[in-house]
Amino acid sequence: MNIPKEIIITEVCPRDGFQSLPEIISTEDKIEIINQLMNCGYSQIEVTSFVHPKAIPQLKDASEVLNGINRRKDVKLRALVPNLKGLERAIEAGVDKVKLMLSATDSHSLSNANRKTFDAMKEFEPLVTRAQHSSIIVSGSISVIFGCPYEGDVPIERISEICKRYIDLGIYDISLADTTGMANPVKVKRIVGQIRDLYPELKFSMHLHNTRGMAFANAVAGFEEGITDFDSSVAGLGGCPYAPNASGNIASEDIIHGFEEMGVQTGIDLDKVILIGKALQERFPVYSNSFILKAGKCSDLHLAPKCQEKIG
Amino acid sequence: MNIPKEIIITEVCPRDGFQSLPEIISTEDKIEIINQLMNCGYSQIEVTSFVHPKAIPQLKDASEVLNGINRRKDVKLRALVPNLKGLERAIEAGVDKVKLMLSATDSHSLSNANRKTFDAMKEFEPLVTRAQHSSIIVSGSISVIFGCPYEGDVPIERISEICKRYIDLGIYDISLADTTGMANPVKVKRIVGQIRDLYPELKFSMHLHNTRGMAFANAVAGFEEGITDFDSSVAGLGGCPYAPNASGNIASEDIIHGFEEMGVQTGIDLDKVILIGKALQERFPVYSNSFILKAGKCSDLHLAPKCQEKIG
Question: Which residue has the higher pLDDT, B312 or B130?
Fold first, then answer.
């Protein structure tokens, strides 16, 4: 394989993982977990979402969490913002980056944001202006890009139009999200290849869910198409709303381990991530989904048995 | 991707899945499950292993199971045989193919078969002669080829020597087994590429375990290197002896679904496999490991919610 030698893993457990948990985690615990994650070598952590407290009560303490953590210059803090009010809160809390949520299909956009895709994009304009005013980096996203649970495949023309409008907004950093795990390696290579050729000025990252067991294969497919920036969640926290107990986010320890085994550097201390994952798995056993926490790393060799009982 | 349009999936649950279950399944139930599997469109099923009954009590009824099932001309029945005695039983039971088990490393071979790798291969000679005499197809295997839990990486020189000796034995059909899930896509492409170039006369298949979440990515990597023959186990039955609760065989429904989503035909009725998988999962919930049984197929679309509650 002719592949890059390093990738960036963005830890999203404090946002995507926590928001899917039914049990409220205390602000102190969130701060403690994010502080631990900041010491793992991640260059970027998605710490929270500045949504309306009633929409996601778990994240209502977003500002307090950001105020409480020990900042590090080498770790960029990203937050989701749904609207101008959320952006103001994010700026006040001192995030480095904000990410705008957008669905590839109208039906998913209506169910998630109460407005159609291109209507939602129009409302991004004042947000981009406001963020630029405070030197906050704005990234975009395209949820359900590899398949929508309501509409199925998304036409490439529509994806292309979304990319074009992101460029018009001045947003060049776009997360391709397989929100409900409907991607496959062939589809990833086709879509990523097409939009990369159409818009070489865009920088794509991937947000993968392991709902149907293909997340790592999809990451490798994206990687082979030049993507070197992936989201993941420690302990695999973050489920799938359409299928109880189904896997959600690819686990950080699984994607870090997989790429490191392939000879690709992440700059992250896998053993530290595993320790954090074990604690989370112990606390939220039903919501964690991780291979490495169960099986250990490939490099954890076993002692060969000394002899075998003779049979027959 | 420049890829073949179809693959062969060999169902191994009746052997690899059942042998890992602590609860003995009745002969009648085994026959019933194999009969159901034979109606799914599989062209090949690994029905049992003719090992010593004391080694794997679960499979002691191998002959009765083979005698009881409804044969179909379009489904080849394969069995594992560890020695001449097992081969005689397999021939008497009327299998179409036998597979010889071999470990890539001496430590794994000693722990599994009480003899070193090349000593085991020497004992294959009379088996091949005997099988040819009865027109039984003999295939070989190389367990732990992508990594040994005792020794780690296996040198390519050793893998090459094993391939050479298989050719000397007249065995050209070889299963590359990632017995404890230590492969990754880069390693798969490197090893498969090297041995395919060295021995173009050999036909390789893959037996993948999802221990560390990379089985589907490894299948795709092998597929891109020209492999079109994969083992899998319905409901993902078949665990990992080194890690309790860790995933074992890649689930048939997961690999069939994944490849079909990629536009690759398997000839298998996925819905029928899912039904069998659901029944097995219900009976052995702790031992099954399947994404599709939890999440459903990508094509199972959901109804979009009609409206959303206004917040704030």
Answer: B130
**Tens of pLDDT along A171-209?**
999 999 999 999 999 999 999 999 999 999 999 999 999
The answer, for A243 touching chain B at a CB cutoff of 8 Å, is yes
Q: Which residues of B touch A221 (CB under 8 A)?
A: 220
Chain A interface test: which of B210, B294, B297 (most A C-beta within 10 Å):
B294
pLDDT band at B310 (very low <50, low <70, confident <90, very high): low
**In terms of CA atoms, which chain A residue is nearest residue B259?**
A184
Residue A3 inside a domain? The answer is no
Asked whether residue A48 is domain-assigned, the answer is yes
Residue range(s) defining the domain that contains residue A174: 8-295
Q: In terms of pLDDT, which residue wins out, A221 or A311?
A: A221
B242 touches chain A (CB under 8 A): yes
What is the count of structural domains for chain A?
Answer: 1
Residue pLDDT, tens place only, B53-69: 999 999 999 999 999 99
Q: Which of B54, B242, B291 comes nearest A247 by C-beta? A: B291
Interface contact B291-A220, CB threshold 8 A: no
pLDDT reported for residue A4: 85
Task: Tell me what pLDDT residue A240 has.
Answer: 73
The conformation of residue A70, written as its DSSP 8-state character, comes to -
A55 touches chain B (CB under 8 A): yes
